[in-house]
Structure formats: C-alpha cells, structure tokens
User: Fold Sulfatase-modifying factor enzyme-like domain-containing protein from marine metagenome.
Amino acid sequence: MANFKPMRGDYAVDQALYTVEANAYDPNGYNLFNMAGNVSEWVDSSYEQDAYEYSASMNPNVNNIYNAKKIIRGGSWKDVKYFLQVSSRDYEYENQPRSYIGFRTVHDYLGADLTANAMTNTTVRKRKNRRSSIK
Assistant:
C-alpha cells in the first residue's frame, strides 16, 4: 500500500489525507519506503515534452536554464495510481512550492569493500594470507 488517491475524489481510503511519515506504510521488496506515492519528486532535468523523441539516450537529462518547468515523478498523495510509476512524467514550475512535491537524496553505493577503510583491511588480509601460504 502507498499514500495515493485510490479512488476518484476520495483521499481517505488509504488512511491519509496528506503526506505521511516515511515509515507509515510497509517497505517494498528492497526494504525502501515510499518509492512511489506520498510526494512526487523533483528531477534534475528541465521538462521538454519531446525529450524522449529527440534524444539518443534512454535517460535524457535536459538542463535548459531558461526553462522553469521541472520534471516530477513518482506520484503523490493527491495522484491516482497511474502516476505512481516512475515512467510517468509530469512537470511543475521550479519556483512554485507545492504540498505534494518533495525530493529524494541519492548516492551511488558500490559496496562495503570499496570504502577506504575496507580497502585497507582487504589489502592487509591478502598480505597476511600470502605470508601464511609462503611458510
């Protein structure tokens, strides 16, 4: 279940009339909360209606500083389920605050073995293993 508008004109069916805390619903199969619904999310790209038609990329990032329309994705508490898929794309003007738009911070995660501390520990373990096999 997610925080969205499940039926026409009825926001209360999912037990929420507006945004809710991140853990108000169960996490998805990846143990992530509110990946769809609750608030739509700003995307870094400017909105161009034909971006996918005229781009060679499957993920075009249009950064037009003169275009105040910014892409939003993921659906919100006020949207019907169609907008809860990441493939749906809409826009809002960048200078207009809305109660149904937020943002998500993300970073690349390459695994614990690639952190500086883990690399040092892995290198030390390999050296110890080489030494022990030489004996």
Remarks:
- The radius of gyration is 22 Å.
- Residues 50 and 60 are 11 Å apart (CA to CA).
- The mean pLDDT is 72.
- The first strand starts at residue 40 and ends at 46.
